[in-house]
Write a structure and sequence with these properties.
Belongs to the iron/ascorbate-dependent oxidoreductase family. GA2OX subfamily. By secondary structure, the protein is of the alpha+beta class. The protein contains 9 helices and 15 strands. The structure holds gibberellin A4.
Length: about 325
Amino acid sequence: MVVLAQPAALDGFPLVKTCRLTNNFFAQVPIIDLASPDAKSLVVKACQEFGFFKVVNHGVPTNFISKLEGEAINFFNLTQSDKAKAGTPSPYGYGIKAIGPNGDIGWVEYLLLSANPQFISQISRSIFPEHPETFSCAITSYISAVRKMACQVLEMVAQGLNIEQRNVLSRLLEDEKSDSCFRLNHYPPCPSELRALSGRNLIGFGEHTDPQIISALRSNNTAGLQIFLSDGTWLSVPPDDNSFFIIVGDSLQVMTNGRFKSVKHRVLAESTKARMSMIYFGGPPPCEKIAPLPSLMEDGEESLYKEFTWWEYKEAAYKSRLGVNRLCLFERS
Ligand code: GA4
């Protein structure tokens, strides 16, 4: 169970957005057993239809997950001034309510980190000067196990799409220059009197797509995550702390020339329980061209997108509001 002290600084609730519910009660999130023989085709189908699926038999050791969850609880239970030792997010650091540099606000506090082990050691020394290794080891071992699982998924994608070069996508996450990041989110319960006051649900993390290739999300057993379906409804994702949720990012949408869709998702605040999530965002090296994979293109098929590098896309993303369709800027007319 997650036991977290309520951070006083989240008091300014009127700043946080609310939403009405337009829930889809019929659709279901695809569940894929990574060890099953038909996993490759199911992964491709889920990426095309939802841009989202849940994986079981993921191979990430449970002790890595529980260790990191414990460390995350310790971190969020620190005093505000101790959490602030991680620095204000620019983009990495500790953030509370403010998401990104353009005025987006949510009912959330978070720690956003580069997935680079040197960065993780350095920031751990700032937060826990006396015993930085416990925190940094928990994060780095978790990230390497989750990266491995994400690479396995991307290799299944390549195989499922009949691409000969199996590592055509996974190599980007494995590259030592890979620009991947990692986020710990804590969504405190939204007091029921606040919900009653507004008559709406508080937004924990506003709707958005992930700019990277692929994201792997794990949360505790508290609900809140929703994905946006092609019929215009939101689907609430039942929480499952034993599984991972895979999210197709904008870059994978481009690399598949629109065959896969990056999925819009958001998190609503729960009224009684804290939600904690840990997300690995697998990104390519900064200089990598983000373009449709040549081996996927059919005769005469043209790219739907202008040419750009990951660096250029990331720069544009950080200039945009959370909820905008960032890929629009890069579509060919
Ligand atoms: C969304 C996905 C990841 O959480 C993230 C976010 C980033 C941030 O929190 O700093 C961004 C957001 C995310 C996209 C648009 C910009 C940048 C906040 C924001 C308003 C870490 C990422 O890579 O892009």
